[in-house]
Every structure is written in C-alpha cells, then in structure tokens.
Design brief:
The chain has ten helices and 21 strands. By secondary structure, it is an alpha+beta fold.
C-alpha cells in the first residue's frame, strides 16, 4: 500500500498574459480544477515536468488525492492593451476579498479575469489576499479548512517604469511563514542588429540592471523576507534571457547568428547547452543575483517569445528564453525544506507571447519529539570560535574599509540571551576576514514555557547579522540564519552535543555576502 507524507502542498503559477485575457481553454490548462492535486500529480505527468532529484518514491509519497492546501497565482501584463498604455497605474490597489462589499472601480479586463479565476478555484478555498498593482495581479488562496490558522501579515508593492514591478506578501500557516514575491524585471530587447561591440555592451548593461533590480525588490519595507521567513518563493517574468557565448574566434554573435544557434539547440533539445547560456543560471552561479535561491533545471522548451497559439511556435524576433521562472529558498534545514516536485510550462496556453509556468511544492510536516517520561526543561546553546570570510560590502565601500562585528537576534519569547552573555561581538577593524576567537555567545531556550507559546520552537530562527561599523552608523553586510529546530533534532537524544567548524553563508538582497564559521555546543537541562 502506498504511504503518503503529511505536509503542505503548495501550487504556484505565474503567467505573463501579454495584455490579453486568456480564453477558458488556456486557463483550464493552467490551473488545477477546483484545486485538485491530481491535475498536477498523476501517472501521466511528463518526465520533463518532474524535478531532477525527485525519485519515484518521493513523487508517489506526495498525496495526489484531495485538494492542495495553498494556491498562489501571479499574473503580469494582465491589463488589456487599451488600458495598459498609460492608465494601468490608475487601477492599482487592493481588490476585494470574497464576500467583501468594498470593491474598487477596477476595469473590464481585470474583473473578467477575476471572475474566471475564482470560478476555476472554486468555493473550497478562502481568498487570503488579492492585489492589483500597475498591471500585475497576485492571488493567495488557502484551503478553507486551514483558513482559521492562516493569515496574511504583510503586502508591499514596488514599481519603476524603467526597472519593473513587484508584489510581496507573507502568508502564515500554523506558525510557518511563507513569503511570495512576484516580480517582473524589465528588459530592453535588441530588435535591430548593431555592431557586435554595441550588442555586447547593451546586453551587459541590461543584465546588470536586472540583477540590481532583483536585489532591490527583495528589500520589502526595509526588511528582507528571504531572511525573515521560513520559506520564500520568487516568481514571475524575470526576463532573464538565453545569451549564447561568443563564437570560436571570440567574436560576439550577431543577431542572425544567435537565431541560428537558438534553432539548432531547440531542434536537438539540448537543454544543458541552453541552461549554460541562461543569464539567470549564470547570475546565480556567479553570485550576481538570486544566489540565495534555487530553481529547478529546465528540461523543456523556453517559454518566450511565442506566437499567440497553442503548442510551441516561436517568434524568432527575440531569442527563445526561460523568461518565466519560479525560485525557492528555505531557511529551515533537513527534512523541513521545501521540496520542488513538479515544474512545467503550459504549452496549451494560446493567448499570450509567454507560456505560463507552474510548480507543485511540498513542505513536509515536522514535529520535535521529546521523551514524554523525561522531557527536558531547557537547552543552553553556546557559540564560540566565530569568524567570517570573504565579506562583501556594498559597491561604494572598499574591502579594506570594513569594520565588522556580529549581532545576534531572535524574536521567539522562549529564547533568551544568557545573563552572562552579550548579544554582539566586539568590532574588528579594516578586514573582510574577521575572527573572534575568545568571545562566547550563549542562549537559553526555555522548553517548559514552549507550550504556552504554541509551537513556536519548531518555527524559531536565529539571525546572526554581520554589521559594518561606519562613521555614519552601522550597516548590514549580510545575515546568516540558523534553524533552531534543526539544532534540537541533532542534539535531543544526547545530554551534550557539539559541532566544530560549522559553516553557513551571510546573505543580503538574495546574494551571498560572506561566510560564517562557528563552533556550536548544546547542553540539556532536564526536569527534576
């Protein structure tokens, strides 16, 4: 008998509508009817849709019956062209929740799309958030039986006519924070063949702007949800293109040469070569953008630029590219990480220049099990031998001008700094490789009070901020995240546990900004 694992199934879809409302057939191909998991998880799923590394056992253990627990949809360029040419921002704002009488004027295109989506989702879901900003629209649904334990705490928007648009929202389900950031990054296409040097310089400038905008959009109201939430999804028309390398003579390809290379790679279905030429893959590999995230390998045809028709029919005026993407990051470790199960384009979608992308993600349910006959009273966590390496300051600061120190933070009420310990290290000066060999940071976790605080222990994150002490005050170089539940699971069966030379990364704006090394020791206090 097939066993299934308990957890949250998260359906996430992104579609650039190219300023045209989809027809019923296209939307039906994109959305799981009434949220039924079987529309995405079934025996007929293509091998190209199953994420690399997902075994047949892993796939089969995700429950394909019933309805997914969380359903998130993001649409870009969702206003019809007659509206989008200058009036789109007039309709930005919060749309109504189901049952609300506070309905803004809106416009015909978004009202029609809204009615179609709600009809496909059905009545077994509660609409937690619906936001229209510029020509971007985002929905977050939670299955109604879980809605009482779910809430949307923050929704923020950012927009720039030259850079793009983003909507970021945080959903809390049973204590677990899920952040969803829908983005569209602008791209200035090279329609007219130019001199090779001009093409190369233009591409680099456009790519640099996209990388910088992605980092900017990950700062939401001064906070970085990729560090404060347990699991984070970035999705949308990120507009990263496939850019083949220079030819064997080291000369930049002309527009016609790139078209020939594209047709050749697509004919051969040479997904590895296409991936090697993918600007997003290279940006993540080179730590230029979004390296804090992962994205499944694309084993299918690029999603842009298509003709408005079902099937795979490219408009070769633009290089075929994986413009539409879904990325994920987990700040919880081990068995609590989000698992990407299915990741696929919808080729039946016929009304857009893009093919939508959808993914099915699984978040396993994880509980911390203590011996009921000898449940511990508290745990003492000690950090020693702290050191940083390869700290990366902001561009206007030289590496030799970094004056770093570490600041320890934790919001959980049951986690307190020991009275004998400070919450920060001393400042070291003019180095990007600081060490604090003699300093000790110590926390006490009160497990006896955890029941009064709900299940917060399994959802607690410790943050270690690497700060730069400057003349005008301190700035954050990067933040490292430690999953408290993972530490507990490693040490719970031992009276004392330690790990030497543990390591993790500092992140800022979705990129790595240095590495942290530390020794960690856990001592348990048992009830009398």
């Amino acid at each position: 008998r097939r066993t299934t694992r308990k957890g949250l199934r998260i359906f996430l879809g992104t579609a650039n509508l190219s300023q045209a409302i989809p027809d019923e057939e296209s939307l039906a191909a994109f959305l799981p009817n009434k949220g039924k998991a079987a529309y995405v998880l079934n025996s007929d799923v293509k091998s190209s849709s199953v994420v690399d590394g997902v075994s047949k056992k892993d796939f089969n253990q995700v429950d394909r019956h019933g309805k997914v627990e969380v359903l998130v949809l993001g649409f870009q360029e969702c206003l019809e062209s007659t509206v989008a040419n200058g009036l789109s921002t007039a309709f930005g704002g919060l749309l109504s929740k189901k049952g609300s009488t506070d309905v803004p004027a809106g416009n015909t295109s978004t009202k029609e799309l809204d009615a179609m989506i709600n009809a496909h989702v059905g009545d077994d879901y509660t609409l937690m958030m619906e936001r229209l900003h510029a020509d971007m629209l985002v929905y977050i649904y939670v299955r109604s039986d879980l809605a009482s334990s779910a809430s949307v705490t923050e929704t923020h928007v950012q927009t720039s006519r030259s850079k793009g648009c983003s909507i970021a929202s945080t959903l809390i389900v049973g204590g677990t924070k899920l952040s969803f950031i829908c983005m569209q990054l602008k791209d200035k296409e090279q329609f007219v063949p130019r001199k090779n040097s001009t093409i190369s310089a233009g591409k680099k400038a456009t790519l640099d702007q996209k990388n910088a905008t992605a980092e900017e959009f990950l700062s939401v109201a001064g906070k970085d949800p990729s560090l404060s939430s347990h699991h984070i999804f970035v999705f949308g028309d990120l507009n990263y293109r496939v850019s083949p390398p220079s030819n064997t003579r080291g000369v930049t390809n002309t527009f016609e040469e790139e078209q020939f290379i594209a047709r050749n790679m697509l004919t051969k279905k040479d997904w590895s070569s296409i991936s090697d030429s993918d600007e997003l893959v290279q940006a993540m590999k080179n730590n230029d953008a979004l390296s804090a995230f992962t994205t499944p390998f694309c084993k299918f045809h690029p999603t842009y630029k298509m003709q408005r028709a079902a099937g795979i029919k490219y408009d070769y005026s633009s290089m075929p590219s994986y413009a539409d993407r879904i990325l994920v990051r987990s700040n919880q470790e081990g068995s609590r990480k989000v698992e990407a199960i299915v990741y696929e384009p919808i080729h039946q979608f016929s009304t857009s220049l893009h093919k939508p992308m959808r993914g099915l993600f699984f978040l396993p349910d994880r509980k911390i099990h203590f011996d009921p006959n000898n449940e511990p009273k508290a745990m003492i966590i000690t950090f020693t031998h702290l050191k940083g390496k390869k700290l990366r300051p902001k561009e206007d600061i030289l590496h030799s001008d970094i004056n770093p120190y570490l600041q320890f933070c934790c919001d959980a009420r049951c986690v307190k700094m020991s009275k004998s310990s400070k919450d920060r290290t001393e400042t070291t000066y003019t180095t990007d490789r600081p060490t604090w060999p003699t300093q000790t940071i110590r926390y006490r976790v009160d497990l006896s009070s955890s029941k009064r605080h709900g299940d917060e222990i399994k959802d607690t994150l410790l943050h270690i901020k690497c700060m730069n002490e400057g003349i005008r005050g301190a700035t954050v170089l990067g933040t490292a995240v430690i999953d408290l539940a993972n530490v507990i699971c490693k040490s719970v069966s031992k009276e004392e546990w330690q790990q030497r030379e543990a390591e993790t990364y500092f992140y800022r704006g979705g990129i790595q900004t240095g590495k942290l090394y530390y020794n960690i020791k856990v001592r348990w206090e048992e009830n009398e």
